[in-house]
TrEMBL record, chain A:
Annotated protein name in UniProt: Binding-protein-dependent transport systems inner membrane component
Pfam families per UniProt: BPD_transp_1
Cellular localisation: Cell membrane
Keywords: Cell membrane, Membrane, Transmembrane, Transmembrane helix, Transport
Membrane topology (UniProt): Multi-pass membrane protein
InterPro entries tied to this protein: MetI-like, MetI-like_sf
SUPFAM superfamilies reported in the protein's UniProt record: MetI-like (SSF161098)
Main location as per UniProt: membrane
Superkingdom of source: Bacteria
Keyword Manganese recorded: no
Stretches that traverse the bilayer: 21-42, 89-108, 120-142, 154-172, 193-216, 270-290
From TrEMBL, chain B:
InterPro entries, per the entry: MetI-like, MetI-like_sf, UgpAE/MalFG_permease
Swiss-Prot/TrEMBL keywords: Cell membrane, Membrane, Sugar transport, Transmembrane, Transmembrane helix, Transport
Biological classification of the source: Bacteria, Bacillati, Bacillota, Bacilli, Bacillales
Residue span, ABC transmembrane type-1 domain: 73-290
Name of this chain's protein: Multiple sugar transport system permease protein/putative aldouronate transport system permease protein
Length: 305, 303
């Protein structure tokens, strides 16, 4: 790797004409690409801080126009959004905790060569990735278990992802040296103690990646909530969002301050942009910190697949 | 024999650990497979899964004969084929381009920005699309307006639906999908590049003769594996994008199962399960075939 960089640096010093053209074209294309991904994101943030009249008359291009916080004021005044935010926080934290514990409990034994029957268990797990009972039988099961319209329906049906178990198992297999296990077994260390005090401390990166994948899943989940939850008290943020953003169902109360129909229409659009920002920001804040970990996670996953 | 039992006993803790996840898999994955038998029954809630009378292949026949069948099949395949083909080259191109960027800060910025949309929720993504494509207040129509075009009501046209679905998918996933190709590129032996530079190869030549052949095996295998998912349309996103006007090109098997089973006035669990099972079986066969093919190719590229 270092060597390659050196080679490239050397070649940069005597870059030929065609290489210079290539470099310029490459940077231009990547910049265009960068803008295409970035622009919608910037636009949303700018629109959310602009005045409602500027938003609907199409005056916002790059930076906020006539900056205000009226969109955010309307968002935070809304009880459904606040409630949804708290619910989502609960589902994400509790759900991810359950996910992680169960995944470790599945992945660690499967990573041990001396775990009798692991071939059969592995097959049992992997088969569920290839074939499933389908939406309706799963729905009926959740109903029969009495989880309908409870917090449990948000936490338990998706408590384990086999894919993540496989990634974690591969990590355990490749990073925990067998000698460590043998040495501690000689010292009379039990399996659970070994897992807790040797394996876990060595598995920080993989736990971070898997936690991120699970947490993003919970934070963004709307479909299960839509079919399992009836009472709006339990609605996660995404379901509230869906009503407002996609179904365009906005309480007149939310638009309280606006007097005229045009002002209402404007605030309605503004509100959507502010909502998008409020919902997406928590993930986007966490994301740069875990970015280097998840690249690793993707790699371990692909090694296997 | 005795030694075997002793070993088993000694590792009882591993089994204790493994029990809860195993129970989870059995209850939440295998019990629904057992429940899928209602596809062959006339299911009634009062009689339960095992008590309902058998109906043979009636539900399946009904589905194959219904006028929805071909439309669902066509939409499902065209959306997933379109996605598969259109989204194939972009992550590779992005990775190839990034591989020749020497400016670390620029490279990191591009990577960080292009990964970010992957974390945006589908609800937000579809919300964004609706905002941008709005005929009156949307950004796209304002831009088209400059050139005297439009306004178009994109979301209300069946003919636009699949393109909007696919290109927004690419926008959201290209950065994330490119990670694996970047890794493949960094594992190419640097000596190859050095030798090529010594021989006076240009960057374009190096890309063509070193980088592209270097990542081709992984690209082909990924492509093959993705064809195994051909029936898996991103149905949660499609459901959000659907409206009465674009239904003609947006209704796929999964959304139809959801509607027949859980939304429609005359909820029909057996019929919906049968349609879902039909899809699951075809998907399963497809996956097996494709995995076989991928294995063969992997071996060939190894030897």
């Amino acid at each position: 790797m270092v060597k390659g960089d050196e080679g490239m640096r050397k070649s940069a010093m005597r870059e030929s004409g065609s290489d210079r053209v290539f470099t310029v074209v490459n940077y231009v294309l990547l910049s265009v690409f960068l803008i295409m991904v970035l622009y919608p994101l910037i636009y949303v943030v700018s629109a959310s801080f602009s005045s409602s009249s500027a938003v609907i008359s199409g005056k916002v291009w790059l930076w906020p126009v006539e900056p205000t916080l009226e969109g955010y004021r309307a968002v935070f005044k809304n009880a459904m959004v606040a409630k949804g935010f708290m619910n989502t926080l609960l589902y994400t934290v509790a759900g991810t905790a359950i996910n992680l514990v169960l995944s470790v409990m599945a992945a660690y034994p499967l990573s041990r060569k001396d775990f009798r029957g692991r071939g059969v268990f592995m097959l049992l797990f992997v088969f569920t990735m290839l074939f499933n009972g389908g939406l309706i039988p799963t729905y009926l099961l959740v109903k029969d278990l009495g989880m309908m319209d409870t917090v449990w329906s948000m936490l338990i049906p998706g408590a384990l992802s086999v894919w993540n178990v496989i990634i974690m198992r591969t990590y355990f297999q490749t990073t925990i040296p067998n000698e460590l296990l043998e040495a501690s077994q000689l010292d009379g260390c039990s399996d659970i103690r070994f897992l807790r005090s040797v394996v876990m401390p060595l598995s920080g990166p993989i736990l971070a990646v898997i936690a991120l994948f699970y947490a993003v899943g919970h934070w963004n989940q709307y479909f299960n909530a839509m079919i399992y939850l009836k009472s709006s008290d339990l609605y996660p943020l995404q379901l509230v969002l869906r009503d407002i953003l996609v179904q365009n169902e906005i309480n007149i109360e939310m638009l309280g301050d606006a007097k005229t129909a045009a002002a209402r229409q404007g605030l309605r659009e503004l509100l959507k942009y502010s909502l998008i920002v409020v919902t997406s920001v928590p993930l986007l804040i966490v994301y740069p910190f875990v970015q280097k970990f998840f690249v690793k996670g993707v790699m371990i996953g692909s090694l296997k697949g | 024999m005795l030694i075997g039992w002793k070993r088993l006993l000694r590792s009882w803790q591993l089994y204790a650990l493994f029990l809860p996840p195993l129970l989870y898999i059995i209850i939440f994955k295998y019990v629904p497979m057992y429940g899928a038998q209602i596809a062959f029954k006339e299911f009634s809630v009062t009689k339960g899964i095992s008590g309902s009378p058998w109906a043979g292949f009636d539900q399946f026949e009904r589905f194959f004969r219904s006028h929805e069948f071909w439309r669902l099949l066509r939409n499902t395949f065209s959306i997933s084929l379109y996605t598969l083909i259109a989204s194939f080259p972009f992550p590779i191109l992005l990775a190839l381009g990034l591989n020749y960027v020497k400016n670390r800060r620029f490279k990191n910025t591009v990577q960080m920005v292009t990964y970010a949309p992957y974390f945006i929720s589908l609800v937000v993504l579809v919300g964004l699309m609706l905002q941008f494509l709005d005929p009156r207040t949307g950004l796209i129509n304002s831009i088209l307006g400059w050139f005297g075009l439009g306004p178009y009501h994109f979301m209300a046209e069946a003919s636009w639906f699949q393109s909007i679905y696919v290109w927004s998918h690419i926008w959201q996933n290209v950065g994330f999908s490119c990670i694996i190709f970047l890794a493949a590129l960094s594992s190419i032996d640097p000596a190859l590049h050095e030798a090529a530079v010594m021989d006076g190869a240009t960057k374009v030549q190096r890309m063509r003769h070193i980088d592209i052949p270097g990542i081709m095996p992984i690209a082909v295998i990924l492509l093959i594996l993705n064809t195994g998912q051909l029936l898996e349309t991103g149905f949660e996103k499609i459901l959000l994008m659907q409206n009465a006007l674009n239904l003609r090109s947006s209704e796929v098997i999964d959304t139809y199962v959801y509607k027949v089973g859980l939304v429609s006035q005359a909820m029909n669990f057996s019929y919906a399960t049968a349609i879902g099972l039909f899809k699951a079986v075809i998907g399963f066969v497809l996956l097996l075939l494709v995995n076989q093919l991928a294995k063969k190719l992997k071996q060939e590229s190894l030897w």
